[in-house]
User: Which sequence fits this backbone?
């Protein structure tokens, strides 16, 4: 039966008003594989009478056909909706379900237990106030139990319910429950977790889920539902100063200009003084507009539109704050990162950072350590792999208005996006701004790039030669420089091997070292461009991301990417150094084209095929290209 039956023919308006006034608890279920998370949620939905008759009929039919309980109701099927989930009996995606009791409304996120879907668990945890950590009584505390607990506490979930499930399979053993509780609390103590409640249960049978179990008279604590209905929810965000990230500038006509967003903390009234960050401009609130009309006050979590007394410049991604208590602004931070990408995080690589409503480029750098989720030991690391957690620095291209994550979830969190695939590859939490960010400023110089270029009568340009080892980059770059020098141009050639004798002598050939190799060279090329030189850069530079970073370091028309192209087979034929042969024998690790990938340019300004052109012909073609594009004409 459903709750609709209970008020059918009654006062519907009164029922809806009652539901609207109930407080809301958002929680997640998490833990290791096959701990019974989906079964638990299905049981909660069933017992709270939030299922329609057709859902019950479908559940009965699916349980006989797809269930794992011998024809009895398989409650997991209520939330495992993907075909792959039903076939394998596991959760893959995050399934959100809403239900209510007479005391409270709930939104629950059923999150997957498999390690490869940890990113989905973190997604569900990001908005939760409570986490139910399920543990199979037969298996005890596992690595994924610890990982999910670590992520839950990392993301600011203060209420942890440890549901030691499947007690019916261990004969409702009090000793088993006590041992698991002891192990879990010892681990959680190291995380600083305080609000922990351990409940012995059987989601399948219903022990201690809604009603107290007669099979475990030794347990005197609350049932799971009893705890969910009474645990304190909400935080003190409304008591904090006003903050609202601007999601949209609302300009339907010339007479209205408002700034829409969701209040992240505090309250706001017309007439309140506000500050716009990062610009620092101030104004006063003229109106607070909502779908239902103007409001006399707005508070945390309300979606509103604000109009101001003054024509202050405000854009998407800016943060409106109480003028007397603004948030901080910085472009460099210490952050905690949970890596979600299949490819490892590479310090020094540029990613897209989406912080609230603002999106901007940034670089993760100086990985300080990663955390062993089993022991909580801080371990030295050069990179983060899938599901690993670590602390590093984040450098952004422009200032960001923020609050530390522990103070405000909305203003202290961000996601990390790969610039080429647009995949979300990580999430991060801001700990604090780095002090050095406030101490470093650009020093104005009277002699600039334009005046230097005019003096030497040439247009500063970066010629970036990329290609496999043996393709002919260095030979062709050398010939191009000779031709340009003969024409009277001031040039400098940065060659990969030569630079590794000095500037980059401390770098190896791992992916992260290759990223740093190109980052340093790109910075040098940028400085030489500022001098006014034509700079030739001859590096394998195997990754598109770093070549894009080098391109973005200079003006749009100052970068020319030249793909010196040849097949791997042809490159191996020219292997005068014997490098390919060593790589084939396994003597050279991370060799591009053999054990490390080469990402060929997709939109290079010039492609030179050295399998059909000689080095001299190639160099002549490149110089002609520069002449056609006007790069060799005097400034």
Assistant:
């Amino acid at each position: 039966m459903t709750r609709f039956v209970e008020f059918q023919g009654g006062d519907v308006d009164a029922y809806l008003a009652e539901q609207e006034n109930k407080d809301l608890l958002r929680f997640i279920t998490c833990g290791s594989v096959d701990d019974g998370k989906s079964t638990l949620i299905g049981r909660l939905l069933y017992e709270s009478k939030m299922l329609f008759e057709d859902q019950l009929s479908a559940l009965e039919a699916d349980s006989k056909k797809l269930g794992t309980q011998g024809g009895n109701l398989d409650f997991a099927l209520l939330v495992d909706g993907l075909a792959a989930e039903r076939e394998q009996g596991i959760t893959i995606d995050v399934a959100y379900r809403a239900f209510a009791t007479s005391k409270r409304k709930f939104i629950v996120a059923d999150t997957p237990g498999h390690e490869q879907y940890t990113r989905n668990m973190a997604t569900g945890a990001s908005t939760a106030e409570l986490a139910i950590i399920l543990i199979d009584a037969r298996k005890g505390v596992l690595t994924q139990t610890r990982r999910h607990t670590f992520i839950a506490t990392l993301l600011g979930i203060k209420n942890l319910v440890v549901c030691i499930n499947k007690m019916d399979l261990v004969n409702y053993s009090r000793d088993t429950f006590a041992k698991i509780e002891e192990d879990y609390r010892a681990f959680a103590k190291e995380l600083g977790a305080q609000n922990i409640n351990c409940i012995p249960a059987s989601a399948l049978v219903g022990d201690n889920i809604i009603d107290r179990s007669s099979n475990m008279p030794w347990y005197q604590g609350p049932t799971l539902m009893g705890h969910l209905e009474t645990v304190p929810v909400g935080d003190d965000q409304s008591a904090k100063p006003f903050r609202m990230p601007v999601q949209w500038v609302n300009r339907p006509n010339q007479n209205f200009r408002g700034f829409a967003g969701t209040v992240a903390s505090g309250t706001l009234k017309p007439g309140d003084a506000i500050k716009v960050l990062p610009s620092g401009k101030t104004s006063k609130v003229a109106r607070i507009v909502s779908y239902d009309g103007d409001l006399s006050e707005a508070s945390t979590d309300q979606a509103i539109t604000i109009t101001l007394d003054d024509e202050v410049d405000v854009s998407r991604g800016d943060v409106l704050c109480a003028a007397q208590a603004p948030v901080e602004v910085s472009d460099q931070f210490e952050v905690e990162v949970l890596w979600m990408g299949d490819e490892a995080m590479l310090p020094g690589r540029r990613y897209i950072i989406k912080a609230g409503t603002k999106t901007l480029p940034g670089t993760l750098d100086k990985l300080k350590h990663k955390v062993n989720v089993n022991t909580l030991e801080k371990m030295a690391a050069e990179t983060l792999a899938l599901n690993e957690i670590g602390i590093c620095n984040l450098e952004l291209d422009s200032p960001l208005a923020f609050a530390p994550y522990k103070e405000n979830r909305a203003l202290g969190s961000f996601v990390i996006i790969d610039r080429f695939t647009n995949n979300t590859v990580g999430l991060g939490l801001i700990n604090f701004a780095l002090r050095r960010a406030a101490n470093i400023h650009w020093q104005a110089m009277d002699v600039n790039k334009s005046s230097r270029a005019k003096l030497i009568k040439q247009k500063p340009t970066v010629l970036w030669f990329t290609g496999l080892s043996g393709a002919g980059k260095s030979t062709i770059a050398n010939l191009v420089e000779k031709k340009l020098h003969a024409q009277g141009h001031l040039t400098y050639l940065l060659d990969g091997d030569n630079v590794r004798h000095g500037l980059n002598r401390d770098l190896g050939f791992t992916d992260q070292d290759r990223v740093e190799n190109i980052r340093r060279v790109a910075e040098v090329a940028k400085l030489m461009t500022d001098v006014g030189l034509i700079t030739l850069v001859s590096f394998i530079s195997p990754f598109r991301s770093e070549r894009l970073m080098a391109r973005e370091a200079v003006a749009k028309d100052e970068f020319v990417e030249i793909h010196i192209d040849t097949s791997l087979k042809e490159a191996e034929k020219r292997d005068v150094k014997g490098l390919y042969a060593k790589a084939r024998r396994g003597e050279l690790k991370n060799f591009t084209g053999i054990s490390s990938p080469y990402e060929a340019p997709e939109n290079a300004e010039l492609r030179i095929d050295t399998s059909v052109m000689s080095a001299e012909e190639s160099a002549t073609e490149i110089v002609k290209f520069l002449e056609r594009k006007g790069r060799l004409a005097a400034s």
Remarks:
- Confidence is low (pLDDT under 50) at residues 1-5, 80-92.
- The first strand starts at residue 24 and ends at 31.
- The chain has four domains: 3-230, 237-322, 330-436, 450-628.
- Residues 65 and 241 are 55 Å apart (CA to CA).
